[in-house]
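re: ur question from earlier - yeah i can do the single chain one, its not a big deal. heres the input i used so u can compare w yours
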Amino acid sequence: MIRIAPFGRVLAVAAAASLALAACSGGEDTAQPAAGASSAPAESSAPAAAQGDGTLTIGTLLPSTGSLAFLGPPEFAGVQLAVKEINAAGGVLGKDVVEIDTDSGDTSTNIASQSVDKLLQQKADVIIGAASSSVSLSVIDKITGAGVLQISPANTSDQFTTYNDKGLYFRTAPPDVLQGRVLGDLIVSDGNDTVGILALQDAYGTGLADNTQKAVEAAGGQVVEKVIYDPKAAEYSADVAKIKAANPKAIALIGFDETKKIIPELVKQGLTTDKVNWYLVDGNLSNYGTGNDGFPKGTMKGAKGTQPGAAAPEEFRKRMLEVDPNLKDWNYGPESYDAANLVALAAVAAKSDAPADIAAKLQEVSSGGEKCHDFKSCNELLSQGKDIDYDGVSGPIEFNEAGDPAEATIGIFEYNENNEIKNIDYKTGKISG
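and the output i got, formated as C-alpha cells:
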C-alpha cells in the first residue's frame, strides 16, 4: 500500500575512526546488542514514547525539488520497490506496510519541516531521509523528539556519528571519513601532489572537505587552497580565481547542483581537464550529457569521482525500472531499498511497529546471524526463530554503536567524452571506534 542507539552510545565512537581499505574488483558502471535499549538518557532528553498501532507506516523525506532533486528518483524507487516486495511476501505483523512519500526540498526552503509535520500527523513510525545531511540536521530533533525513528540512505556528514539522537537515528550510507579517505588517496595516487578544494558551505561540504584534506596530507600531498563557497551565489568567478592562483595539479569539487555553474567557470578560466585533474563526489557525480542537454562534448573527459555504495546489480536495476521506468541514475537507490528492508525486518524481530522497538532491533538484524539478502528470505528465517544478518544490495551494512554502517563500499568513476560516468574501481572500508 503506497500512501534509533542510546544517548550514551556517542561515547563509544568519540575516538577518530580508523579505516582498513582494500580494493575490490572493478565493474560496470547503536547500539549495543539493541540500539536504543541500553542506558537511558536524562529524562529531559528522552523522546516521547511513540506507540505502534499494528501497521508499519514508513514515511519518506526525499528530494523532489531543490539542489539534490536528481537523487530523488532512485531513492523513492528504492523504498517503493522494497515496500512492494515486503507486502508481496505477506507484509509486517500480518499487514501491508504503508508508505507515505514527501518532499525534503533543500536548506533554502522550509519544505522538509513541513513534510515532517505531515508525516508525524499521519503517524509515521519511521522516516526514511533526508538525502542532504544539512536537511536532516534541520529536522532530526523534531523527528526523534517525537519518538519517531529516522534512517537516512544518503547522509554522510560525520556530525551524525556523535549526535544526541536519543537512539533513533541510523543511516545506510557511510560517514564521510570513509569517502574522504578514498578520495584523498585517489587524488594523490593519480600523481597529484598539490590540490585545490572547492566545497560548499554546509555540514556535508565542509566535513567532506576536511576529511579529504586529511587524507591528501596523510598520503604526502598538499592542499594549496581550500575555498568554502556559498551554494546560493549567483556566480563563482572569484572562488575559482582563488583556486587558479594556487596553481594546483588537481581540484576536488565538493558540491551539489551549483556544480553546473562552477564547471563552466573552471573552463572559462582555463582550468580544463586536460590541464588540471578534476575530482567530484556523490553530491555532484552525475551524467552531464552534451549539447542542449548538458556541457559541450569532452568537458568532463578524464574527470573522476567517488560515490558511496556497491555496484547496483543488473537484476536489481531491472526491478527498480519496473517501479520507475524513467530512472537514469541509481545513486542511493540500493541504500534506500536496504533502509526499508532493515526497518521491516527489525519490526518483525521486535514483533512491534513502535519506533523504539524497531530501533532496538536494527543492529541485531544487520549483523551476527545467518546471512540473507532480501525481506522474504530473511523473514522466513525469523519465523523459524533464527538470528539473521541482512546483507543488502548496498553492502553488508552491519550497524555499529553509532547507527553507522560498520563497513561500506566507495565506487570510483571516470567521465568519458560524452560527459557520462563509468565505474572503474571499488574500495571497501571498515570503520571502527
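The longest helix spans residues 333-350. not sure if urs matches, ping me
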